[in-house]
Recover the amino acids of this structure.
């Protein structure tokens, strides 16, 4: 048994303590906390210093009663673990926190109408002000568009239209950049390893590849459909190496590109001397592969900020389209001019 006497707990500071320290009224502190525009800057600064000094934390439930705003944003994502959706989910949560919102996450193993309806009902019980839905698959997007959420529903990444309550990266343009880079290096036999065609992003990247090939007077080559995993990239890479028909390959994500690179190395193909490879996403490991991977970078942090900016604008009664964000081609060591042009 401990011989140390129990220390009395220090009471948490309350709004009245802040008011006394700042030399203002209780109502003034309340107006500062609730973002009133009628407070003089000097008074606001004095109250904020008192809040910081005391370590005061406003009672969010009481604040919600006064403002009729919960300050909570619902986020519906998937539990797939894929790099893109996971990165977007994290960036949305970070942007929400930076903007002063709380966030409540509901991960879905499968996006069905029933699962989504249950998720929205769960979030509604928490009095969320809006929902951000990370919808990567076409079926999920269809469910989102048919859902009657009863509150603003922002779609992130799955909707490639750049219209309405949606935010995303221009997948078609990113794929065009990747394919055009290979064409500019003198490659005419450019294969494409796509993601699963049930994903809107996979379709967008396939479209960008085909557009670049046709614009250069080239025929899009055989469609190799992957599943986003290195294992499937490895399988396809072995077949590409066996056939030996392509001088370059654009792979729809970096994880599959890793599998393709491994298959080529096993087959004795040197990248980029024998064949060039471009990926998509710019995962943190891309620059440290051997060779370092040329890829297309998506700014997931910007996606999260744009999503929360759209939430704030919508809650403020503003309606605006958010143009698709531009991707960036990152050229590294896995691509080189075709041997005939060297």
């Amino acid at each position: 048994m401990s011989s140390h006497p129990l220390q009395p707990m220090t009471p948490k500071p309350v709004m009245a303590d802040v008011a006394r320290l700042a030399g203002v009224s209780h109502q003034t502190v309340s107006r500062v906390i609730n973002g009133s525009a009628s407070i003089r800057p000097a008074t606001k600064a004095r109250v904020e210093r008192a809040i910081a000094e005391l370590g005061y934390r406003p009672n969010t439930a009481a604040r919600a009663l006064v403002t009729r705003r919960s300050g909570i944003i619902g986020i519906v994502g998937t539990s797939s673990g894929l790099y893109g959706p996971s990165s977007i989910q994290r960036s949305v949560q970070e942007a929400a926190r930076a903007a002063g919102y709380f966030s409540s996450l509901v991960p879905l193993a499968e996006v069905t109408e029933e699962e989504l309806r249950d998720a929205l009902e769960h979030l509604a019980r928490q009095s969320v002000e809006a929902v951000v839905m990370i919808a990567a698959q076409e079926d999920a997007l269809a469910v989102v568009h048919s859902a009657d959420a009863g509150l603003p529903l922002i779609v992130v990444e799955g909707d490639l239209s750049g219209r309405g309550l949606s935010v995303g990266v221009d997948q078609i343009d990113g794929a065009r950049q990747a394919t055009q880079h290979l064409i500019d290096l003198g490659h005419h036999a450019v294969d494409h390893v796509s993601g699963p065609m049930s994903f809107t992003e996979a379709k967008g990247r396939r479209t960008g590849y085909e557009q670049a090939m046709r614009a250069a007077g080239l025929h899009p080559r055989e469609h190799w459909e992957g599943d986003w995993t290195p294992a499937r990239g490895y399988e396809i890479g072995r077949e590409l190496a066996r056939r030996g028909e392509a001088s370059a390959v654009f792979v729809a994500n970096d994880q599959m590109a890793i599998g393709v690179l491994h298959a080529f190395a096993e087959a004795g193909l040197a990248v980029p001397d024998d064949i060039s490879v471009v990926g998509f996403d710019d995962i943190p490991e891309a620059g440290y592969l051997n060779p370092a991977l040329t890829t297309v970078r998506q700014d997931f942090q910007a996606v999260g900020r744009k999503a929360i900016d759209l939430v704030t604008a919508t809650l403020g009664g503003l309606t605006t389209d958010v143009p698709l964000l531009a991707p960036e081609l990152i050229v590294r060591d896995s691509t080189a001019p075709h041997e005939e042009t060297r």
